[in-house]
Amino acid sequence: MEHQLIMDSQVDGVEPYAQLLEGVIPAALAAEGVAFPWEVDVLFTGDAGIRAINLEQRGVDAPTDVLSFPMFQLQPGVPPTLDEVEADPGTGLVPLGDMVISLERAKAQGEEYGHGTQREVAYLAVHSVLHLLGYDHVDEGPMKAQMRKREEAILGALGLSRGMNGKEKVEHE
Q: 42-64, pLDDT tens digit by residue?
């Protein structure tokens, strides 16, 4: 099955993280049962870049670690079907959405939590994929717990362990 992962960058030094996401994003989508050709766009930026996007798109004048812009309203935990999404007629791929990752924030958080930038970028990508598939964490309730459980299952299957005795700061949108 054909997929397309489109990556762009406003910052230098993204090559190892781009290579990482070439494995992480398809694995996360497969783990969630996505069984059709898809496209996901990723932008690597810094705190200033993500702050500008956050302000423009959400009206929030602050940097964050990851932003997700899903193309469809999907049901979390239920594999999406071609009845719920629409493929691009030119490519035949379903554009699931866009994610923006602040490498500046990922590096700081990876250091703070003791698991490094690679694991943090992988976590942010999985987190964003889940948002693209309808998951949310607007409160401390069952939706957030469902999302955290899936994040850890996917990252665990990829061999990416948590840092700091299971503690994880979550600023993600």
A: 999 999 999 999 999 999 999 99
